[in-house]
Amino acid sequence: MTIDQRGQIGLEFNTFGFIFEQVFISLKRNVLLTLASVITMIISLSLLGCSMLFLANASFVAETFESQVEIAVFLQDYLSSEQVVDLQNKLEKIEGVASVTLTTKENAIKEFEESMGSKTLLEDLGGINPFPDKFTIQTTDAHLVQDIASKVSKVTGVEKVRYGQGVLEKLLQFTDWLRWVGLAIVVIFTIASFILIAFNIKTNVYSREKEIQIMRLVGASNSFIRWPFIIEGMFIGLIGAVIAMVIVGFTYTWLLGYVMSNLTFLPVVADQLFISKVLGAMLLSGIGIGVLASSISVRQFLRT
Amino acid sequence: MIKMKSISKFYPNGARALYDINLNIHKGEFVFLVGQSGAGKSTLIKLLYRDEIPTRGQVIVDSDNLIRLKEREIPLLRRKIGVIFQDFKLLQNMTVFENIAFAQQVVGKPKKEIENNTEVLLEVVGLSKKRDVYPDEISGGEQQRVCVARALANNPPILVADEPTGNLDQDTAWEIMEILSRVNKMGTTIIMATHALYIVEKMKKRVVTIDKGKIIDDRPEGANRFGI
What we know:
The structure holds two protein chains of two kinds.
Chain A lengths: L1 E2 L5 E2 L2 H17 L1 H37 L2 E6 L5 H12 L4 E7 L1 H12 L4 H4 L9 E6 L5 H9 L4 E5 L4 H40 L2 H9 L4 H41 L9 H28 L5
Antiparallel strand pairs in A: 1-2, 3-5, 3-6, 4-5
Chain B lengths: L1 E9 L5 E10 L4 E5 L6 H8 L7 E6 L2 E2 L8 H7 E4 L11 H10 L5 H14 L15 H13 L5 E5 L7 H16 L3 E5 L3 H7 L2 E6 L2 E6 L9
Parallel strand pairs in B: 3-8, 3-9, 6-7, 7-8
Antiparallel strand pairs in B: 1-2, 1-4, 4-5, 9-10
Helix pairs in contact in B: 3-4, 3-5, 4-5, 5-6
């Protein structure tokens, strides 16, 4: 430590070496407290990571279900192909409509023939195609389906509009509930892990109140006292986070493999980039909470 | 070296700890602060290393005005003042050697210098053989000697002691006083609060008597009897 002309205390390289030495000595001395902090960190961050993955999957399930909701629009029989194109343009301009796909009556019967395994259906029906022209509308948001459907039904040239009436409402209720539960779990676990870790580190710092007091009495500068605690908090955060990342990473990968091979109907998030983002968030939270909690705790002893 | 001008100290609850204290202490002096418990001795001592700030008046230590001292300058003041406590305030999880070295590490001394200096200090207080022992494995007198060594570690020009013999029997107390005398002879200014009158009488040093927060007597070095 050096003292410049204005009496400022600066930290020199030599001092940094000493601070790091101090950190390891104190981690070793307070081995039980350190262990408790690291374990708290592992549990909290694992829960946090799991809840984030749960939220992502809940939203993904909701999205997948919702994306399967379509509006079928059957057209009146006498429309010319120009009118059909006009109508398609009109429908595409309605707010919330993502795409409008046309299935002409000719295609419809062909598809039907294929699905029935018959090639002579049209002839059997006496050459009269009973299928109307049909638009399939995909919406940007399943919540808009009802609204769009009622708008579409008022457009001239539209005979009939169909969507999963009744079923849709129940589906939306379920997906909304799924999203809220996922979000609530993330919020609850975030708060819980912050409190748990902060409390643990605070206990750690408080148990060394005397040490801090003595450091101050023998003339240690505030930054000199603060740094070892902050580095310690960072270190505990780092170790806890890395272990939690390994646990969550492996567990999730294993779970993914299981669901994908055994519960194929369940949509899951298998995006590597997303998983690494969750793991990264755990790392940052761990280090962040560690540093924040220790600097706040130690600050209380540095006031005169 | 130390000047206190018209010091008064009131606590937030209105209690008066010190009232109109005027005190000059010169370099190299050995001063006893005596008085009953609660007279204000500890408060006065705490003003010196700025653990407390007076409500009114000025405290000047080694030409620093402590009232105007900025937060970040406090550590620099404390390096000029070694402090010894009745309850030692040693770190239980550090050895004798580490406790003394610690005080030097916080001011950023080089490692080699700390080691040499700590060996010398251990010799001064007669604890070379117990360097690697923890505080709870040695006697109260030995713990206090560690505390003295720690207070001296950064060569402070001033040493303050608050009841340093308060927890010790008479023989052990004299061991501590002998060390303090030697340190004083080497030029360190010492201010010691105590109510051990047998020590005060025998040492024949300057004695400042405090009662209910006021200085009621200030006898120079060499005086014989004290009126308490």
